[in-house]
Amino acid sequence: MARISFDTLDCKILQLLSQNARKPFLEIARECNVSGAAVHQRIQKLTSNGVIRGFETLIDPSAVGYETCAYIGVFLTDPLQFDTVATELRKIPEVVEVHYTTGKYDLLIKLYARNNHHLLQLIHNSILGIVPGRTETLISFKEEFRRQVPIDGYNLEQ
């Protein structure tokens, strides 16, 4: 994606939305001292340029029965299979992220399981059938925090 130049208003809107994606446009407009139409237009521009990729509801996995968060590092025997493996992993609902990486792993998978037994089933019955290579699993005890990247007014074209 091409880098976009932001002005002060764009940055303020992004800051406010990153803190609360459900904040009404009129409330954002009041805090920015502009009209609701101006905020709506800016958000449309940021969305069409790919800066804002969407608005989401964050669900606590444990509240809906997913007690185990795991990361699986994948060592592929054939690097040309990145796309095929990623396409197959997308079919597993418990897999929530897949990253191509440098360093130790070729791919890094994040998934949620109901418990450790369910995690083992996912690994044995799904993941290992897809991955041509070997894996290494890390279980997260607790997500300490998650946040958006900082929006500090820095012009990304600099």
Key features of this structure:
4-stranded antiparallel sheet; alpha+beta; 19% strand; 35% helix; elongated
Structural description of this entry:
This protein is of the alpha+beta class. The chain contains five helices and four strands, in the order αααβαββαβ. The protein is 35% helix and 19% strand. A four-stranded antiparallel β-sheet has the order 2-3-1-4. The mean pLDDT is 92.
Q: Please, what is the average pLDDT? A: 92
With helices defined by DSSP (H or I, 4 residues minimum), what is the helix count? 5
Structural class: alpha+beta
Cross-sheet strand order for the largest sheet: 2-3-1-4
Shape: elongated
Q: Please, what is the oligomeric state?
A: single chain
Query: What is the CA-based Rg, rounded?
Result: 20 Å
- Number of DSSP strands? 4
Question: What's the helix-strand series?
Answer: HHHEHEEHE
Helix content: 25-40%
Percent of residues in β-strands:
15-25%
List unreliable stretches of 5+ residues.
none
Biggest β-sheet, characterized? 4 strands, antiparallel
Q: Separation of termini?
A: 16 Å
